[in-house]
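Researcher: Sequence recovery benchmark, item below. Answer with residues only.
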């Protein structure tokens, strides 16, 4: 029970982190959302928190942004390693969740849980 609880919490958080990355990186026609809406709305996502910790002020981006401004913002966050760090956090959570399943017997259901966890952080932009 503990392993499955930890698994659920970890992949849930990893899913949300990937969703935050997709919000920034994916064009609207791919994500179905308005690109960079979390940043424009000032939401305190892990991307925003990590950016602040690395000295990036996102306040100027709390407005309507054109595609070139979004590209420049992404370039800035990549230059400061914000996106890579956040993606690494999600990847680490998934690895920990899957490793925690090692207490379960090896079976198709355990394999499906592992595949599901990887899917959450590999769904793309």
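Model:
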């Amino acid at each position: 029970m503990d392993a499955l609880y930890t698994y659920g919490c970890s992949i849930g958080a990893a899913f949300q982190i990937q969703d935050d990355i997709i919000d920034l990186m994916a064009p609207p026609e791919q994500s179905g959302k308005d690109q960079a809406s979390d940043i424009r709305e000032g939401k305190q996502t892990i991307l925003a928190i990590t950016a602040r910790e690395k000295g990036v002020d996102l306040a100027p981006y709390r407005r309507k942004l054109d595609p070139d401004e979004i590209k420049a913002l992404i370039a800035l966050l990549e230059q400061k390693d914000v996106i890579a760090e956040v993606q690494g956090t999600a990847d680490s959570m998934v690895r920990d969740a899957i490793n925690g399943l090692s207490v379960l017997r090896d079976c198709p259901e355990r394999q499906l849980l592992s595949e599901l966890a990887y899917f959450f952080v590999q769904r793309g932009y």
